[in-house]
Design goal:
Blueprint (H helix, E strand, L loop, with lengths): L8 E3 L3 H4 L10 E7 L5 H4 L13 E12 L2 E18 L6 E15 L2 H9 L8 E4 L6 H12 L13 H17 L7 H10 L1
Parallel strand pairs: 1-2, 5-6
Antiparallel strand pairs: 2-3, 3-4, 4-5
């Protein structure tokens, strides 16, 4: 049940406004739009250079609301959905491909870092919402970037079967030649013993 009956405040698709949202105002917020990747420098570092693929803009949708708690103040929640296409380097064939990321997550907002950490570390909440700290200057751009970075694959790869065999063969040759170069020749123990006897 929502404890607030006020009309939600509409967030503009303006990076400056999205870096300072007053989540302690008691208002609820809604918004959606698209943002250029230039606002997310850490995410840009993950993109495959000169890939021939074009990254999309970041599509975002946000909504916040309050829910009553028995005998306590209402809890504030936030829903954030994100979508973006990013050119990444496949770790199997070392060729670029386009990765589509679609993140859909709910958060619970706390007043202090301690409360947020207690929520995250409570085993009963492992499958529940993630915790964030609300502030009068909440930076949504930072939260978007963190969420997209967490949504990147641990090992970027083409969908199964889409790596070209010739590229996989090239990688295998490179890895084999590299392994041969660093191979350490172990001395023959009998030859070492023979040399000692000569001394």
């Amino acid at each position: 049940m929502n404890s607030k009956n006020t009309t939600p405040h509409i967030l503009p698709n303006n990076p400056a406004d999205l870096q300072a949202i007053d989540l302690k105002s008691g208002l609820t917020f809604v918004g959606q739009g698209v943002l250029d990747l230039s606002h997310f420098p850490r995410l840009l570092q993950e993109i495959a250079p000169n890939s021939g693929f074009e990254a999309s803009q970041v599509h975002w949708e946000l909504g916040t609301w309050f829910e009553e708690r028995l005998g306590s103040i209402p809890l504030q929640y936030m829903h954030l959905r994100l979508a973006v296409d990013l050119p990444l380097t496949c770790q199997a064939c070392f060729q670029p491909y386009l990765e589509s990321i679609d993140s859909d997550r709910d958060y619970i907002l706390f007043d202090t870092e301690m409360e947020a950490e207690e929520w995250d570390f409570d085993e009963e909440n492992q499958d529940a919402e993630d915790a964030l700290v609300a502030s009068e200057t909440f930076n949504l751009l930072e939260t978007i970037e963190e969420e997209l970075l967490l949504s990147l694959p641990l090992s970027a790869r083409h969908p199964q079967g889409e790596c070209r065999p010739e590229n996989l063969q090239k990688v295998a040759k490179v890895l084999k030649s590299g392994a041969d170069e660093i191979k350490i020749e172990k001395p023959n123990p009998f030859a070492v013993l023979k040399n000692l006897k000569k001394q």
